[in-house]
Design brief:
The complex is a heterotetramer of chains A (323), B (400), C (251) and D (289). Chain A has 323 residues and is an all-alpha fold. Helix content of chain A is 77%, strand content 1%. The chains are: A mainly alpha (323), B alpha/beta (400), C alpha/beta (251), D mainly alpha (289).
Amino acid sequence: MKAIKENKYSIFLIIGVLLLVSILPLLVNLPFVLHVLISTLMYIGFALSYDIVTGQIGAVSLAHASFFGLGAYVTALIGKAIGAPFWLNIIIATILSIGLAIVMSLPAFRLSDLSFSFATLGLALTVQLVVKNWVKITRGPMCIHNVSNSSLWFNGILEISRTNLIAYFYLFLMVDIVIIILYRLISTGRLGRTLTAVRNDEVLASSVGINIQRYKRLTFFISAGIAGAIGSLWAPYISVVCPDYLSMDYTLNLLAIVFIGGSGSLLGVVGGSILLTVWPELLRVTPAFRLIIYGLFLLIFVTSIPNGVKGIISNVNKRLKIN
Amino acid sequence: MNKHKFWSICILTGTILALITSCVPQQSIQSEDEKAVDVSIAEEKEPIRIGVAASFSGPIAYVGEGYMMGATLALEELGGKIAGYPIQFYTADNACNPEQATSAIRKLVDVDEVHLILGSGCSSCTLASMPLLEENKVAQITGGSTAPEISEMAGIGGNIWEFRVNASSTVMAEAYAPYIAKNEKSVFFMAFNDDYGRGAVDAIKPLLQAEGVEILGEEYFERGTSDVRPILLKIKEANPSALLLTTTESDAITILRQFKELGLSIKIYGYNSTIVTGLFTEMTPDEPGLNEGILEITWWAQGMTPEMEEAFLSRWGTEASPHRAIYYFIVRYVVKEAIELAAQRGEITRESLRDALNDLSIENTPIGPLEFDDNNQAHHWLPVYTMKDGVVEVIEILKP
Amino acid sequence: MPLLKVCGLTKKFYGITAVNNVSFAVNTGEIVGLIGPNGSGKTTLFNCITRMLIADQGRVLFNGEDISNFKPAQIAQKGLARSFHFIRVFIDLTVRENILVAAQHHQQDNDLEQIFRTKNSRLLDQEILIKADKIINFIGLQGLTNEKAGNLSYGQRKLLSFSMAIIFHPKLVLLDEPAAAVNPTMIKRIGEYIRTLNQQGITFIIVEHNMEFIMGLADRIIALDQGSIIADGLPRDVQHDYRVQEAYFGV
Amino acid sequence: MEIFLQYLIAGITNGATYALVALGLTLLVGVARLVNFAHGDFFMLGGYLLVFLFVDKEIPYLLSIVITLIVMLILGLLFERIVVHPTINKTWREQLVATLATSIILSNVAILFWGTTPRLAPTKLSLTILRLGPITISSHRFVVFFVAVISFIALSFFTKNTKIGKAMRAASQNRDACLIYGINVNFVSLVTVTISTMMSGLAGVIITPLYNVSPTVGSVMTLKALTSVVMGGLGNTTGAIISAFILGIVEALFSGYVSSQYQDVASFVIMILILVFRPHGMFGKKVGI
């Protein structure tokens, strides 16, 4: 009973926190702080989308950055060509990311476990190489630097300047709320149970009639679509789109967020995103140290703290109740 | 068991937090002399804060390190003060990634409240930072980004806050192409697969074609590739009269070694490559003459500024290189003169520093007169030089 | 028409024949015991029937339909359930959720309906919830409804996995050693459950080493040795068959 | 024809470097069922140790190798105790993340100590160029080839003919049975991980004189070794070695005749095709559930 209760509270808790967060820009008007907040919001959405496939169904995909990058390039190229507003960019990016996910899933989902991870790693690097070397279209490593601003209507009508941080803050906050609701809907109820079942034991799951492939594909496509949407929104904010967007660095970041925060848990992933986006900003001075600490955290959490930050919190909770 | 685990986790978290807080303290690089001077002067002026946003991590972290070497040396030579104002450097890492560049600039502007920014060597980062300069009304001096778009977008009618000292790849190509065309019939390009390498090739290719030089091929490779023999064999097969190489010291060593191993004998032109330097010779003590006879063009060649080179060697224990030297020149001449001009005119602010940069005209520097044109681009001299008997020999200095 | 018909099933591993040309049929309403010494191919046979392993040769007809090329999940959906030798439960789900998962693939709604919780979908949820609670009561795990399956004892897991196999009213259930490593009281209870369910019309094939248990329960016994059927008949007859004795005791 | 031969030789010699790195990894995958994403980083540490000992401290090459191997032995033991042991009974997901974390830590420790500028450690042999007809080749490449072959033979002999080797093979087949028969699985794991780490370090020491060593070289090497191991069938030593050579040759030919920028795509495509059509690798055996 306790577990269910806790889950029910966490959604209210998160939404309450988000509401609190939403008045933050009114209190702090330092652009740097706002920028960190926006990055954090971006990573929350991005990490949640990753957790749908990695934490919920347990297929550790190493290709997640590809969809993010694709979304960014969609905005930089297609969105600019037709002068699309941001919501149309999101739609196009989502559709194309799902398309890429479908192509990737053809070879990748014939494999299981570790082989799946390898295959996605190979595919992700292939996609990145193509983007990097297809200079005619993507400008390759020279990057696309004049990404147009987000706008509410076609051809730059009602444009949101990229220096208007408050507007971006609320834009990402809204996107996050949508993603959190979607995440909740997927990770609970009947579908959520099915995903947990597949993660726990594929053989048993198929013996009770669950079509493993279908659910794996479903989550892979959903998470790819969300990642593409976030990428398409992130590109105008940063203003430059490079092949780096598709690099393994992003995927590794997400892996760290999900596993340090606690995979498969909304609270954990959100906590992990905040932790790993805010701290690197504070530690911007010593990059090598920062990454070492990052790695150490990851190692400690994976080897000795099974459920990440989420696990620690519930552990402390238990203790408080007992005493 | 459980209790034990709980406490161990607590202790661990505590240790890590302690570690992190120990890393946070301020990062201003202040030389000891500077502090001494500070005390002796009774009338204390508010320090001028200068931000350095460069890559201090990632694959080209050594570029950022090199910038700081040059900048610190220049500041020390100036006694830590310009026009009576103590100068403080604040660094922010951008890892050569545009997303991180945004964070870095914002941190410098908001947290460190810098008056002026020394920009990155990565064009993508410089381009990503430009809207932020406009937003915060702070000027940036760039010394390493070569993308032509930067000056196209900067200056009158564009972004008035971005200034570039080093020549763009177009400018360099315009100077170099006739020189190559004079001596060679056909060329092959081999360059880094990044904006630096590709940008350089894109700029010079049409110029060489226009001069009637045959282009036999172009190959790009990733930084740090260990085995480049297949590419070199391809070049061998194409048999051009010259190879145009865009790389940096350490990768050049790998390439030249395998070049030698495969027995190739094609004339090499370094192009933005920094092979013909004392640093290169210093890195290859076992292979004297590896860079012998290679021609090169950059913004600075060894031997142009003997005093500075000596000072550099004694301060850092290693040779100066174009990457390391450019920030020396920026701080030693451009920043100095700009601050002095701004101080003459009145208060030092972000705006007054920008105006000073805009009106700047420095007659004498070792790399030629420095003045920003309508696109906020400076035009320094371009030396063409080669390595002869282990010594850098300047063949010609191209003056714009 | 028999409920399950196995024709000439063969499976080899590295040249060793684990299941050798096995053919048999099971009629609706039967309880069939499958016995044989260790390594005689019983579990492999189960795996081949449910397509967890792909047989080299042979066909499997279930309810008159050829299921030889179906996927495991499809076979389960046709009404052929199974339990595993090494007890498997979904450790991160509660007891109730385990049963719900096992029951839910019979719902006729798509993923989008599930994600957005349509009225139809919620009604279906209610329906299986009632069913699940009923079965939890039936096997006597009421007190543990919301306990994570990972925290259950071995016997409790066994009961849980048993109830997961029977939740969606399958036509045929394959049980792999339901009585192994369980205390005598529990064995008795499991036997009772099987009988009750059998009376409700569910057919069973049970692999078992506990002779007393299986002989008392089964209507018919099939004995396997080295991948082949060596006896097929009434429990008493099979027990006294000399080939079976030889296989077990080397007489 | 001559140029083809040169591509082929470039491919084979490069394949030998991949093989040398893949050897240690395939042992680890075969015995401990652990895919170590930090494998290449031990290669990198080996390279840096060589630079430190041979270049900075001017210790003779052979002695440097010995000292490096001893250091790698200690590092291997630490790696097993700190990373492998706590995750050995967890799922492959935790193992993947733990080794990735190790990789992040090691490459950044290297940055902290040695900076990001690549370092060189040329030996006399690596600077001596041999001329064989139309083909010229650095004599150190023979050393790499020779060490790869010797390591392969030594590893095969060790796993087939020594007591601990046999225990390792048994552990790779069935952990539970080992527990029952009294084989000390813990000890086997310790030995396996340590040997694997040492072989990776050895590869670093042997290969670095030819090229250079930088903090990023680790991830490149991990990728190449992993590709070979996956192609050859997880844990199949002979398969991994053959795959490493195939990988080297394919890369050289593809890069020579098609495109050098897409050279990595070629190897990934081959790897994925093999994974899809022969999930247990080119030379792997089919295993049931």
